[in-house]
Amino acid sequence: WGVIGHRAIGKIAENHLSSKAKKAVQDILGSESLAMVSTYPDEIRSYQQYSYTAPWHYVNLPEGLSYDDFNAQLKSMDKPNIYKALLQCISDLKDASKTKEEHIFALKFLVHLVGDIHQPMHTGHSEDSGGNGIKVKLMRKETNLHGLWDSGLIDYTGLSYRELAADCDVVEKNEAKTWEKDDVAKWAFESYEISKQLYAEAAKNPEFDYSYYPAHADIVKKRLAQAGIRLAAILNEINK
Ligand code: ADE
Ligand code: ZN
Ligand code: ZN
């Protein structure tokens, strides 16, 4: 996602934190909020010193895998990827022997990567760099399938991150409960399945018109809400 998507996810998570988790987050981040630190990994990724973190933002798998095959390939992958990085962040946050600085770094990446793993094009194919290589138009404006889903659609709404968070965070308690039970591999598979649909639509006709946003708005909002609610659940669980 872009800046507004990541911040909206941070804001939704803040709405769902327990008081213990809120306090723990404050102890780590000081005056900074989850929303404000959510974009940190994108700010540093282009610096040489942090280039090792660039592959942490996504995972690429071949098309057409069943859930079992997807799981097996995801879990046995040697290369750094978003799944591995997320599990590492969670483990570092739980680890009291890590330094304050390490906890800050892990939390900033956790907020960001829970967001990215819910962006369907962050679990796309390697040959087109997760849709970066797929040219599309949105109402005659040239973009690519990845960028459209990172920020093109969200920018089109014209909402601030707070407005977007309020718009997305309207989930029934029971539905939220089922989302909280799913594991990280399931989140990735959900994105992978959505990306399959998005790839197929772009292959059919890459010139999207005014009907594209309304047809996909529910997916965007659901993925942002799931990311925020699942992020809060992880932080609540770590700080029980
Ligand atoms: N961002 C940069 N490269 C990417 C890739 N291969 N897949 C998804 N997102 C990316
Ligand atoms: Zn990212
Ligand atoms: Zn992206």
TrEMBL record:
GO terms for biological process: DNA catabolic process. Signal peptide: none annotated. Keywords: Disulfide bond, Endonuclease, Glycoprotein, Hydrolase, Metal-binding, Nuclease. It comes from the Bacteria. The keyword Metal-binding applies. SUPFAM superfamilies: Phospholipase C/P1 nuclease. Pfam families: S1-P1_nuclease. InterPro entries: PLipase_C/P1_nuclease_dom_sf, S1/P1nuclease. One of its GO terms (molecular function) is nucleic acid binding. This is S1/P1 Nuclease. It comes from Pedobacter miscanthi.
